[in-house]
Design a protein that fits this description.
Distance between the termini of chain B: 58 Å
Helix content of chain A: over 70%
Largest sheet of chain A: none
Number of strands of chain B: 8
CATH superfamily of chain A: Amino acid/polyamine transporter I
CATH architecture of chain A: Up-down Bundle
Helix content of chain B: 40-55%
Distance between the termini of chain A: 49 Å
Shape of chain A: globular
Strand order of the largest sheet of chain B: 5-4-8-7-6
CATH topology of chain A: Amino acid/polyamine transporter I
Structural class of chain A: mainly alpha
Largest sheet of chain B: 5 strands, antiparallel
Strand content of chain A: under 5%
Number of strands of chain A: 0
Oligomer: heterodimer
Shape of chain B: elongated
Amino acid sequence: MSSGSGALWSALIALVVALLVVAAINVFTRRMAAPGSLYSFAAQGLHPVGAFLTGSALLLGYAGIAVMCLVASAGYIGGVIDRSPPTGSSPGLALVIPLVLFMATIVAIVVRRGTSTTWALLLGVEVVSVIAVVAASIALLTAPGDHSSFGDILTATPPASSLGSAGLIGVFAGVIVCTSGFVGFESGAALGPETRRPFLVIPRVVRWTPIASGGVLVLATWAQVDGFAVTGIDPALTGVPMHSLLTARGLGAAWSIPLDLAVGCSFGACAIASVTALVRLLFAMGTEGIITRRFAKVHRKYRTPVVALSTGLPLVVSVPVVALLLGVPQRIVAEVAVGTGVLGYMVAYVGVSLAAPRFLRRIGELSTASVAASLAAGAALVLMVTAYVGMQMSAGNGLAVLIMVGVLLLAATYLFTLRRHRPRRVQSIGAFDSTSSEDVLKTAPAAPGASRT
Amino acid sequence: MTHWRGPSGRPGTRSPAIDDHGMTGRQPKAATTALHALEEVARHGPGVTAQEIARALEVSAPTAYRLLNLLVAEEYLVRLPDLSGFALGRRAMEFVGTAASAAPQIPRRAHALIARLRSSTRWGVHLITYAHGHLHIADPDPDHPPHDDVFLERHMDRCAVGRLLLSDAAVAATPQSGPGRARQPTYAIQVGELERHLGCVAVAVRDEDGILIAAIAISGPAHRMADALEELLATAAPVAQDLADLLA
């Protein structure tokens, strides 16, 4: 978020790309509800191999972001508990690892119960954290000093010195960084089959999530760009821009604790959301028999995919814990996790963007507008994935790219092997909660309850 | 748009009480088109595609797609499993259907049989009828009010009467001959799935062709279900037999 004055442009462009992806995703959410979300959607328009690669990329996306959120949440909350390390550096391992495990336990409890009370609680946490960030931004923007308006920043030519990456490349890099703040906005789609009016509610959720989070992102970016200009702090020299800015404006002590706590809890909520979607994707793949059918088992009372949870979550948690124990710095763990996660999401978004027009053609509902939006989204994403890979490689963060490529290769190999031995299972990719005869008025030919058993 | 003339006589000010934006622009046309679309689906029967509806309504394809997606979102229409075909949905049924899909009349003697069963046990006893894959509560126990049928249909796989219907349908879907043929279920049970402390057993009532036409649902405390099951089935079986003759 610090590509100089172009940062604001980056945030706005990222929002537009996100909305194009929303258009492609909502082609599906208006027509079907599936716990496998993008994976099941891609299966409607792509070859089973394409769908499975989309699904694998999405799994990696959920897992990467979940790992990052667990580590970040432990880091922020740890920073509130132990205020001895200087601002911007991480608290000790003796504090962080128990906190990661503690957050993982909360994730497990919430995802296992999956009741509306827990969702209401999550929403509360998010509202509080958003209010904290918005309040901090407003505090920065209204602090005494010579402020620049929104329009001024958009039209200003970036100073050549800002991070050395000013101009178009800087804006482009910024778009990718901002997009990484949006990924996961489609997670609500995984809850379609559990929603009362999915074709009404889910498209709305998917559309408004990036708009709302984009609004906060644009506001926070504005506050920071303005703050850097007013205070003269070099954005390249601080890892925690909000903190440095608040401290420079004499607001540090009062703001930093509630801000850290809110952000820490918000990362926890994000981990819950990622794991919720992750286990539903495993559940969907299990139901189809693409992976072990054990994942299709649900809790007797809560009807949540507990087997997928009890297998998936320990895997997700073990990655950062082992890495931290091996002495990898927290910042690196979080960076590789977020890199892998963002790549995973972007590849999955490419899959669903390509699938949308083909799906529409298959069901005979092709329209020019939807094709244009899907193609624009697909093109922008392919460009961004390429650039992101380039950026990660040149930043010496090749591990994320390596993981992504490795997982995709593994997934392709697995599917081809499966197709040789169990061709019928591969055919079943893309099952979803279809209309059963109870939903259809009685003019329908009787096929009672076929899909609800 | 109509301009409401306020008490002051100034044109263009509208009463705040009725400020719901009225029905403006092309909305009346859209509302009519939506109703025509429903009519078109009803006339064609399940499986009609968006393009066919667009042609029949003489509207552009994108308009038809938007309209149909709206009707699907509101559950007046549903998409069939191939996702290209449409059929009337549950909410359309609510306003056209109450007359057309009226529950079959239950003979007075059937009510009498259920009443006698009720007086012989402390458990709740309900009579449920099945038709076209739907269930209908024909005689709810007034002392143990059951969930309504819409709720039960929404939780088909968790209530005993729904499970009976589903397992019956599953058997009907398998090949009709061969040594491995599954037997038609005679009852289905649920313990603590809908309400933690309640359980229910649904005993099948079949006509002479073996078609599932009704169920006697017996509900009571979940913790007593396992012990009482055998006795409940024994009590209900002869009543189910008598009901079969009355309801067939």
